[in-house]
Amino acid sequence: MTTAPHRDRQTPSTFENPTSTQAVMVYLTTPDRETAEAIARDLIDQRLAACANLIEDMTSIFFWEGEVRHDRECIVILKTQYRVMSDLVAAVKALHPYECPCIVSVPIVGGAADFIHWIKTQTSI
Questions:
Q1: Which residues of 51-67 are buried (b: 16+ CB within 10 A; e: fewer)?
Q2: How far apart are CA 97 and CA 53, in angstroms?
Q3: Structural Rg of the chain based on CA atoms
Q4: DSSP of 33-63
Q5: Which structural domains are found in the chain, ordered by start?
Q6: What is the pTM of this model?
Q7: Which residue(s) pair with 7 in the sheet?
Q8: 28 membership: H or E segment, kind and range
C-alpha cells in the first residue's frame, strides 16, 4: 500500500453559481478516519456542512503519477448548500494531506422536504 501524495495549497476551485441555495451532497475521500473526523468536525463547526457520514475502509484504485495506486481510504459524505462550496473546498484543502483531494458535489434533486430545509438552516452562515 502506498501513501497518497500531499496537496498543493495553491490549486483553485471553481463554481458557476456560488450563491445558489441548492442542497448538495459532497463526496470526499481521506487517508484515514482521524483525518475524516477532523475535516468533518471543522466543516460542521464552521456551518459549511449540516452533517457528515464517515465510511471507513474503502479501497481506491486510481492512476497517479504514472502508476496504478491501490489505497485504503475513508469516505466522507456531507450535506450542505451549493452556495458554500467554494468555502467548503478551501476549508477541506487547508486540512487535507493530499495534493489533489477528491472533493465533488452532486445536487440533491428530491427527498424529504423537512430534511432539505434542515440542511439549509444548518448551513446558513
A1: bbeeeeeeeeeeeeeee
A2: 19
A3: 15
A4: HHHHHHHHHHHHHTTS-SEEEEEEEEEEEEE
A5: 23-122 (3.30.70.120)
A6: 0.83
A7: 99
A8: strand 23-30
Cell of 1: 500500500
Give the pLDDT score at 12: 44
Burial of 1 (0-12, 13-18, 19+ CB in 10 A): exposed
98, 31 contact by CB (below 8 A)? yes
Q: How many CB atoms lie within 10 A of CB 92?
A: 26
Q: Please tell me the number of Cα atoms within 13 Å of 61 on its side-chain side.
A: 0
Amino acid at 65: E
Condensed to tens digits (0 to 9), the pLDDT of residues 4-16 reads: 544 444 444 444 4
Amino acid identity, position 121: T
What number of H helices and E strands is found in the chain? 3, 4
